Amino acid sequence: MTRFRDRQAALVVSLVGGSHVINHMYYILLPPVTTVAAADLGVGVARIGLAIGLLGAVVTALQLPFGHLSDTRGRTPMLALSLGFGAVGAILTATAQSYAWLLASQVVLGVGIAGHHPAHYPLLSAATDPGTRGRAFSVHGFTGALGFAATPAVVAGVVTLGYDWRVALGVVAALGAVYAVGCISVFVRFVDDEITAPSDTSHADESWTVSRVQALPKRAVGSLRGMLSDRGILLVTVLWLVTSIAGWGIKTQTLPLLTETYGLPEATGNTLVSAMFVVGAVLMFGGGWLTDRTSPGFVLVAGYVSLVAVTAALATGILPALLVVGLTLVLASTIDYSRPARATLADRFSSADDIGKSFGLVTIGISGGGAIAPPVLGWVSGRYGVEASFAVMGALGIVSLALTAVVLRVESARPARTPQPGDD
Fold first, then answer.
1. N or C: which terminal CB in the chain sees fewer CB atoms within 10 Å?
2. Contact (CB, 8 A) for 248 and 373
3. What is the DSSP code string of 243-275?
4. CA distance 43 to 57
């Protein structure tokens, strides 16, 4: 049985990792083609930005409803919904002939993307044992980083061959559609039912009716109220929100710091930023391994102390070039390295029958960081200088350390949860 469980774990982690690549490729489908798509559709670049914002709003709004469906209807149906709607939304985006069409495509795409975290994290939790779960979460984070990097690479490659933006997005859609068919087929045929089955069977005898679909928002609100009364998962969500704000600050403010404060050429700065994200993604594996071998708390404290130290040093604006390069390369790692530990804590605070909803709530925290950081830190940078935005990120690291202390105290007083299948 143990050997079978190991094979199941490897299979599920691989399949979920591939799905994460595809969903993150969908997530940034429009940004690499913003200018040419706007010109082709006869709208301003700002309106493409609004379409991207609509995508994010749909993803955020559907987290708890889809978490509920994952818990009550099973992981495989939610994964199929995610990959299926995602492929259709990507195809609609590639073939959009008007701005209204583009907006509709982003709604469909958002429905697809919204399902991936409520399906992924419960699958990883159910398929792995506590001694390897941190590493499973690190693989998940790494594959997500690959997905973010893949779409610009595909677009650049297709455009280099002489094709337009529609063909480039069509290639992404085709890759996603092929993967969807293969992934779901393997899940249905080869993944153990106890991993994919609903964890909450209280609604198992309910049929799909119009009234039940209409009741989903009300149930989602009820679930949200219940979860907001749970200090543990609420604190982890706030911790992930604060960390996400800092992470998005790193994504958006590092290049201006390198070029404006330290005088690096823009091409050099872009190369260094790309290398920073690669290093961060790789070191995520180290964070997962340490989470399994030590504790989430140790990994979080190490990551946030590093965040404070590195951002404070860079914010001085007086460092020599070689030290700037070294600190920049590890800057993203201060956030990425601790991602598996945050996921592990969210997993521990979830009961066996609501893990989909728990990670749906956590994902709202992640998405919230992406909504808050760019405008707020952009304003700070414009008003007080980019060094001030790095000082804010350092302050967020201190807040994260304080939140971590509270989270660990709550966890130590919390009774053990009902075991997942992988806990046996």
1. N
2. yes
3. HHHHHHHHHHHHHHIIIIIS---HHHHHHHHHH
4. 21
3-state SS class at 351: coil
Helix H or strand E segment including 327: helix 321-331
Amino acid at 99: Y
| DSSP-derived 3-state class of residue 109 | helix
Sign of CA dihedral 229, 231, 233, 239: positive
d(CA 96, CA 40): 10
CB 72 within 8 A of CB 200: yes
Q: Give domain 2-196's CATH superfamily.
A: MFS general substrate transporter like domains (1.20.1250.20)
Whether the CB-CB separation of 355 and 125 falls below 8 Å is answered with yes
pLDDT digits (tens, 9 = 90+) for 344-363: 999 888 877 778 888 888 88
Give the distance, in angstroms, between the CA of residue 38 and the centroid of all CA atoms in the same chain: 27
Cα separation, 420 vs 195, whole angstroms? 9
Question: Residues spanned by CATH 1.20.1250.20 within the chain?
Answer: 2-196, 228-416
**Closest CA relative to residue 133, chosen from 304, 350, 364:** 350
Alpha carbon distance 18, 37 (integer Å): 27
Amino acid 352 reads A
Q: How many residues does the chain have?
A: 424
Q: Specify the range with the lowest mean pLDDT, choosing from 23-27, 59-63, 223-227, 325-329.
A: 223-227
**Which H/E stretch holds residue 118?**
helix 116-127
Compute CA distances 120 → 21, 206, 247, whole Å.
12, 24, 22
Render pLDDT for 268-311 as a digit per residue (tens, 0 to 9). 888 898 888 889 889 999 999 999 999 999 999 999 999 999 99
- Rounded distance between C-alpha atoms, residue 287 and residue 253, angstroms: 24
From CA 151, how far away is CA 339, in angstroms rounded?
22
How far apart are the C-alpha atoms of 50 and 32, rounded to whole Å? Answer: 15
Which residues, 6+ apart, have CB-to-CB distance to 210 below 8 Å?
none
Q: pTM of the prediction?
A: 0.84
Q: At 264, list the tokens.
A: 């690096």
